[in-house]
Amino acid sequence: MLVIDNHTHVISTDTERYPPAPIGGRRSTWSQERPVDIDGLVRALDAAGIARAVVVQASTVYGHDNRYVAEAVRTHPDRFVGVYSIDALAPDAVERIGHWQAEGLAGFRLFTTGTTMPGQADWLGHEDSYPAWACAEAQDIPVCLQMTMQGLPALRELLKRFPRVRVLLDHCARPDLSDGRPYRRAADLFDMAAFPGVHLKLTHRALTAAEQGGSTAAEFLADLVAAYGADRIAWGSNYPAAEGTPADLLAQAREAASGLSRTAQDLIFGGTTAAFYSATAPTGGTHA
Fold it and tell me: Strands, DSSP E only, in 174-276?
C-alpha cells in the first residue's frame, strides 16, 4: 500500500527568518512544545513508511505567511505537496492565491476554528469571500477547511453558489459522535455527502471522537464510506499537532479501517489524496 499523509505541519527553528504571526494572535501550545522542522518531518515519515505528505500551513503559528510551507515543497518536491493559508475576506485574496500557486503550492486553507480560536467564525459564507471561491472554482484549486459542524450551513450555501469547488474538511468538521449509530448528532455531516465536491479528512481528532459514548471508530468509518465512498475520504496524521509519531497515528487509523475492503483502504490511505491533489500522484518513494 502506497501511503500518503494528507495533513502534516512544519515549524522552523529559525524564528528570525520565519517569525510567528498566528491567526488570532495566540500561538498554539503544540507548536511550542513539539515543533518539527522540514528535516524532522522527513525523518518521521521515513520511519513510518509514508511515501508522501501534504504539508498544511500551521495557521496558529505563521498565519498567512506561507513561506516555510513553500520551502518544504521546494526542498522536497518528490515528497511534499503544500497547502497555504489565505484571508478570504481580504481585497487581494485572489492575488494572494495566484502568488502562492505560482510558488508551487497546491491549494488553500481557510482557518475558521482551532485550539486557539474555539467556536465557529461567522465569516465563512461572507460575500467578501466570493472572489476567492470563484477563483478556486474557475482554476480547480482545492480548498481545505478548518471548521466545525456549525459552519456546515454556510458551506452548503457556498457550494450551491460555487458547485464545482472541491473542498476537504479537516478532522471531518469535528463532529459529535457520542450518540453512536445512526449518528443523529452528526446528521449534517452525512448530509453533506450530497455535494460531490465535499471530501473528508480522517485524522486522530475524528477517530478519537468516534470512540466516545456509544460510538466506535470502525462503525463510524464504515458509515462514512457508505455515505461518501472511500474515494472521498483521506487519512491525515495531523503530525506534530497530534501527540505521537506518524507511525503511531497511522496504526490507529489502520486499526479503525481494518474491516474495510483492501480497495477502500488503498483509497483512504493514499489514493484519495493522490486524486484530490493531482501533484501527489505516486512517482516512487517509500512503500508501506
Answer: 198-202, 233-235
